[in-house]
Amino acid sequence: MSEQAATPAPTAAARPPAEKAESLLLRHVAAFFEIPLAVVGLAGLVLLVAAALAAPLIAPQDPYDLAQLDIMDGTLPPGAESLAGYTYWLGTDEQGRDMLSAIFYGLRSSLYVGVSATLCALALGALLGVAAGYFGGWFESMVMRIVDLQLSFPAILIALILIAVLGQGVEKVIVALIAVQWAYYARTARSAAVVESRKEYIEAAVCQGVGTARVLMRHLLPNCLPPLVVVATTQIAAAITLEATLSFLGLGLPITEPSLGLLIAKGYNYLLSGHYWISVFPGLALVATIVSINLVADRLRDLLDPRLAR
Fold first, then answer.
1. Cα 32 to Cα 299: distance, rounded to the nearest angstrom
2. What is the rounded CA–CA span in Å between residue 267 and residue 281?
3. Residues ≥6 apart with Cβ < 8 Å to 7
4. How many Å is the maximal CA-CA distance in the chain?
5. Virtual CA dihedral for 20, 22, 24, 27, nearest 10 degrees?
6. Residue 220 near residue 197, CB atoms below 8 Å
């Protein structure tokens, strides 16, 4: 017999957790870029977010600085020049406000409200859902009955009631959106937590005397995140759409912090007079934002949803 011992090849189970996580992430990133529509959606989303963040730097005009507005430039068509020789590439509204600048600032407000509400709702719903799935019993029944009750009503109805009670304002709109959205995350987190809590690594942590809070936050919650990320991505688009609906109805953001929905509402009365650009261009920006987010969300769902795994 040969004295040379064969060295076994390292298996996936023997690889360090950090290396396995990095390998899985790289595979997901590579798989994401295999779909052209997902790449287009991501590119569009990056451009829109960059335009919103850099609005004060790239906008030709501060559309809400009255000193920069000239009423004589009101309702100019796209491509028209002002008396000072400035070109309004997307036209102006009735107050002489540059629509390109207004869209940049409106996109900034819409994304801020949508992302803020989604993150807060995700945190609240994930914690309640994971706790309900782990503890079970009366706590799970109470949380899920509240979730079922809320989801039985249309989201727009709940938002309208809350806005009527709380009043207008950025913070109040965000609170209303959180109250509308948290139930989606709670239901998803509870379903994932029920499955994960039955696995051996949770039993091992409990047997080792790990505290309940650490089991929930360090072990259970991270393994429930993939489906929550998918839901959160789609809910950002839903939050932006709902906020735009509220603003279009005059119940969303104030006139001093307008979103795309409010810009659309302001131009709605001018459609029949032929000044289509005041409402159409903000509408196109809103559609582009929603479509880009949904394209990214669809691809993330294909990659992260275990029910769709092949």
1. 7
2. 10
3. none
4. 98
5. -140
6. yes
- Give the Cα separation of 120 and 283 in Å (integer): 27
Q: How does the average pLDDT of the chain come out, rounded?
A: 87
Stretch (H or E) spanning 197: none
- pLDDT at 308 exceeding the cut of 60: no
Please answer whether residues 42 and 296 qualify as being in contact, where contact means their C-beta atoms are separated by less than 8 angstroms.
Answer: yes
Give 218's DSSP letter.
I
> CA nearest 98: which of 88, 106, 107?
88
Query: Hey, how many other C-beta atoms are within 10 angstroms of the C-beta on 78?
Result: 16
User: Does residue 26 have a pLDDT over 90?
Assistant: no
Least confident piece of the model among 17-31, 147-161, 245-259, 283-297: 17-31
Q: Exposure of 76 by Cβ count < 10 A (0-12 exposed, 13-18 middle, 19+ buried)?
A: buried
19 pLDDT above the threshold of 80: no
46-308: CATH topology? MetI-like fold (1.10.3720)
219-231 burial: b if 16+ Cβ within 10 Å, else e? bbbebbebbbebb
Alpha carbon distance 240, 21 (integer Å): 32
Statement: the pTM of the whole predicted model exceeds 0.85: yes
Q: What is the dihedral of CA 132, 136, 138, 139, to 10 degrees?
A: -20
Q: How many whole angstroms separate alpha carbon 270 and alpha carbon 110?
A: 23
Q: CA nearest 225: which of 188, 172, 279?
A: 188
Tokens of 15: 């690889």
> Which tokens in the block code for residue 231?
């839901």
| Non-local CB neighbours of 263 within 8 Å, separated by 6+ positions | 99, 102, 103, 106, 278, 279, 282
Please name the residues in contact with 208: beta carbons below 8 A apart, sequence gap of 6 or more. none
pLDDT (tens digit per residue) in 172-190: 999 999 999 999 999 999 9
